[in-house]
Amino acid sequence: MDISDYLNDVLADWRASKDDFSSNIQPKRQWPIPFFGNPATARVATVGVNPSSGEFAPGRNWVAVESVRDWKLRLRNYFNQHTPAHPWFGPWRSGLKRLGLSYEAGTAAHFDVSYRATKAMLRNRGTDPREFRHMVDRDIAWFFQLLTLCPQLQGLLVFGPVVRADRSTESLAGFVRKSAPRHGFKVTADGGLCLELKGQGMRSCFLHEVTATGDGSITDQLAADLTRHGDELRRKIQVTGSV
C-alpha cells in the first residue's frame, strides 16, 4: 500500500462512518484530513487531535477541491500552495525551525489522530465529549496505519490534551502510547514506538511530548520546549530508525 491507496481507504471509511459522529462534526460538508504535508518525505511529524473546523472556512478555498485527485494534492501540497496554511500551524512552524526542519521543505508533516473536523474539543460546551472520545478511539487506527507508510519518519512531536468521555482531559502523547499496543505497536523503554514490519525487521521512532509551561503564548511555549530539548532531538533525528 502507498499513501494514495491509504487515502482511498480513508475516504471510503469517512463516507461509511460520517453519520456516526453527527453531534460534533463541523462543518457538515468537509473532506477527511488525516495529514497535512507530505508523509512520504517527513522526518518528523507534529501530532494533533483532529483538524480545525476553521480549516473549511469560506476563505480557505476548499470549494476548489472537486475531485479525489484534487483532495490528495491539497493534502500533500498543503504548505506549498496559493492558500496559506491555517494560522494554527504558526507555533509549530517556529518550533520546527529550531530543529532545522520545515513543513515547506517536506522534512516535517502534520498528522491528526482523527481525520474529522469537529466543534472545538474543549472550548465549545456544545461538543459531546462521549461521542468525541469514541471518535478518537476509533480513528486512531488510521494514524497508526499512516506511520507504517512513512519511510523517512524518525520522530513524533506531540502537544496538548485529548478529552475523555467525562470531559476531563489527558495528555495526547499518553493517549497515543496507551493506544499503540491495540494497533500492533510496542512502546519502547524511552517512550517511543516500534513495529516489526514483515520482511523489513524492527523499525522505531521517538515520541517527544512538548510540555506547556503556561508562560507566554503557545508559540513561545513550543519554541522554548524545542529549544530546551533541541540537541537531544536533533541527535535522535539523525540516528533513529523509521517506523
Written account of the structure:
The chain has 243 residues and is an alpha/beta fold. The protein has one domain: Uracil-DNA Glycosylase, subunit E (3-Layer(aba) Sandwich), CATH 3.40.470. It contains seven helices and nine strands. It has helices spanning 3-17, 68-76, 90-97, 129-147, 172-179, 218-228, 230-239, and strands spanning 35-36, 44-48, 108-112, 155-159, 161-163, 169-171, 186-187, 193-197, 201-210. The strands form two sheets. A seven-stranded mixed sheet has the order 1-3-2-4-9-8-7. A two-stranded antiparallel sheet has the order 5-6.
**How many helical elements?**
7
User: How many domains would you count in the coordinates?
Assistant: 1
CATH domain class name: Alpha Beta
> Architecture, CATH level 2?
3-Layer(aba) Sandwich
CATH topology: Uracil-DNA Glycosylase, subunit E
What gap, in angstroms, lies between the N and C termini? 15 Å
Question: Helical proportion?
Answer: 25-40%
Strand order of the largest sheet: 1-3-2-4-9-8-7
Strand content: 15-25%
Low-pLDDT sequence parts: none
Q: Count the E strands.
A: 9
- Give the radius of gyration: 17 Å
SSE topology string: HEEHHEHEEEHEEEHH
Class from helix and strand fractions: alpha/beta
Mean pLDDT: 92
Shape: globular
Largest sheet: 7 strands, mixed
